[in-house]
Amino acid sequence: MSGHHDEGHTIAGWVGSAVAMVGALAIGVGIIGWRPGIWWGLIALVAAVLITWGLHLAGWGKPPHPRSIDQQGLTVRDHSAREGHSNCRGCRLAGRRGGWPLDTPVDS
Description:
Elements: H1 11-32, H2 36-60, H3 89-93
Helix pairs in contact: 1-2
């Protein structure tokens, strides 16, 4: 299917975005007048990053390059995350080396 792009809709993306939205809302309420909201919001934003990263490492995220069409569903788990994705900062921070670099042909 030409023109089809891997939008990155994953469980990790949706959950991380939802937690970050709650954090941003709490910060907004804190700015208006409920001061603990600022701190709770900041905690929620840090939690959003850690939750998204953890879900990515568990295989519910996506690699930094486009996925094949059969791997683009929201509930499709990425089993290559265990070894680490090539050129993925999140995987490297977790100590996973990853496979081939993006410019190396896989089928050779």
